[in-house]
Specification:
This protein is α/β, with parallel strands linked by helices and 575 residues long. The protein is built from 25 helices and seven strands.
Length: 575
């Protein structure tokens, strides 16, 4: 394989990642995590996680720890919040390559990494950084290292593998252990290697996991278990350890966790199509073929000579690692699209395997036209959406950006029609399309969109006002659930400090001093209420929109004002 053919797609993907690292941080989750990290960096409370001075019991602390440390060393900004999670994601992509290379040809392994790196949700989670970015990276890293240990019997792989599991659990909880357990259990059973279940070395692995989790466990025990009088979510006697090891994850299956929604059991089936766009339908074809082969192999002895497996007879890690977590997550009473990102590396591997099967084996010829048709439909639809964002939603004026987009657009169709190999005609058009569209999103669409995320706009304004009396700033942090909420996390992060806020206007007014001018961040309802308590004037007006909930009404420039709501910086003096 020529070097430029390897470096060009990798370089394009990395360029889009890097551009995304400088984007503003999105409300709600990512901004909340960034705000918590900022607070941790200021108060040095690494074992006891606080959120605006109050006890925080939700996500494990790894994201907060690494971000807070980077803030201390380099400074607080968009890039420094994302740098460690994105690096861990890159480790995960490399691990996907190395895991696939254990069982398949290098070309299959390389394509596995490309499919993973270029999936829609991987692009997205490298700028909308939540706990899932590191969860995916550390989980697939752990599985690769343990698979290496089983194949090569080197203890360094065992240690690194269980270190990876510990870090995955520090990223988002027990799911970081359950996915490797499910993947290897299926692999051991279907390859009839039952003896591998009983290796004493797994006990050493559990000890390593325990060491990794120990600081977090000490913090949870001190913060919650030793202080049963604390009221957490309206209840006393809250165990931080029980919450972490059971309620937060398994409680969503048993109903103990209060988070519930009305999503159906097949939510992740249709969600996964766009999660791994532009490979979504290809993934389902590949999974069908893999499932058929797995079922057949249970009853018919097959000599696998297409992809020699030097260390094990067959590979079922990707089958078990994809299917069982998919089913478990689908049974949860609360589902969000990014929950499923952890299994993207598995589907990337078995999809890459399937691509080479249909390209190299005559018995798959009847599927070729279908697969090519599906991918060409993806190319056309995705480019149309990207160009719609760049010409209609927020017209792009940057000539250099347009040059890059047009070149990628032309390349997509040229290589699809004139490519020398089936691989080039099938994969490269979709790959250049998703790179081009996310280039549009990261270089133009999101920066334009963030003009409507007023928390970051106001936070940046506060940070630049040298003569502004920052101690006189107050926010009315209204939560109405109608998409017009006023969030405080981006104000905190971009102003560089935890800002005072109140949920209730009357409560806020009772805390303010007379004969003192305040600047208040509020919506129209708060504006009207403040008029009854004192003198109030509009200092600045903003059009606000909840940027993670895009609708046709907002995207249409002609109807956008119907989707936004006015919020204000108000000058207020108590009568």
């Amino acid at each position: 394989m020529q070097y430029w053919k390897v470096c060009l797609p990798i370089g394009g993907i990395l360029l889009v990642y890097i551009v995304g690292m400088f984007l503003d941080i999105m409300d709600i989750d990512a901004a909340q995590y960034a705000s918590i990290s900022l607070e941790m960096s200021k108060n040095n409370s690494f074992l006891e996680v606080l959120h605006r001075g109050e006890d925080y019991l939700d996500k494990p602390p790894l994201l907060f720890w690494v971000s807070a440390l980077v803030f201390k060393l380099i400074g607080v900004n968009n890039f420094t919040y994302r740098i460690i999670p994105v690096l861990v994601c890159l480790i995960g992509i490399f691990s996907t390559y190395r895991l696939a290379k254990l069982y398949y040809q290098p070309k299959v392994a390389f394509l596995s990494a490309l499919l993973c790196a270029s999936s829609f949700s991987v692009f997205l989670m490298n700028h909308d950084v939540r706990t899932d970015t590191m969860l995916m990276g550390w989980t697939i890293y752990a599985i690769w290292q343990i698979a290496e240990y089983i194949a090569l019997k080197q203890y360094k792989n065992l240690i690194l593998g269980f270190l990876g599991i510990g870090l995955a659990m520090l990223s988002k909880g027990p799911i970081g252990l359950m996915v490797p357990v499910l993947a290897f259990s299926v692999h051991f059973m279907l390859t009839k290697q039952f003896r591998l279940f009983f290796r004493w070395q797994w006990l050493l692995g559990l000890f390593i996991i325990g060491l990794v989790l120990l600081p977090m466990c000490i913090g949870l025990y001190q913060q919650f278990d030793l202080q049963p009088e604390k009221v957490i979510e309206g209840q006393k006697n809250t165990s931080g350890l029980y919450f972490y090891f059971w309620k937060q994850s398994f409680g969503r299956l048993t109903g103990e966790n209060v988070w519930q929604d009305d999503s159906d059991p097949f939510f992740f089936v249709h969600t996964y199509i766009w999660t791994v766009l532009p490979w979504g339908l290809l993934v389902f074809f590949a999974f069908y073929d893999l499932t058929k082969q797995v079922i057949t192999s249970l009853f018919v002895k097959i000599d696998n000579t297409q992809y020699p497996m030097p260390h094990v007879q067959k590979e079922y890690l990707t089958f078990g690692g994809f299917l069982l977590p998919f089913i478990a997550l689908s049974m949860s009473q609360y589902k969000l699209p990014h929950y499923i990102n952890i299994i993207i590396p598995f589907s990337s591997i078995f999809t890459a395997r399937y691509v080479f099967l249909i390209l190299q084996n005559p018995q798959y010829q009847k599927f070729k036209k279908i697969i090519f048709g599906v991918q060409w439909a993806n190319v056309i639809v995705v480019w149309l959406i990207g160009l719609l964002f760049a010409t209609w939603v927020f017209p792009m004026q940057n000539v250099l950006a347009w040059t890059v987009v047009v070149l990628l657009l032309m390349y997509s169709f040229y290589i699809g029609l004139k490519g020398n190999t089936g691989f080039q005609r099938l994969i490269l058009p979709s790959l250049s399309t998703i790179i081009g569209v996310f280039f549009i999103l990261n270089i133009h669409f999101y920066p334009s969109l963030f003009d409507y995320q007023t928390g970051s706009v106001i936070g940046k304004y506060l940070s630049t006002q040298k003569d502004f009396p920052k101690e006189n700033f107050v926010a009315l942090h209204r939560i109405s659930g109608d998409g017009k909420d006023i969030f405080i996390h981006t104000v905190d992060f971009y102003s560089g400090q935890i800002q005072p806020f109140y949920y209730d206007t009357k409560e806020m007014v009772e805390k303010l001093e007379r004969n003192k001018k305040y600047i208040i961040y509020a919506d129209s309802l708060g504006f009207g209420e403040l008029k009854t308590y004192g003198n109030v004037n509009i200092f600045k007006t903003f059009d606000k929109y909840h940027v993670t909930q895009l609708t046709p009404t907002f995207l249409n420039p002609a109807t956008r004002t119907q989707a936004t709501n006015e919020v204000y910086l108000l000058e207020f003096e108590l009568r």
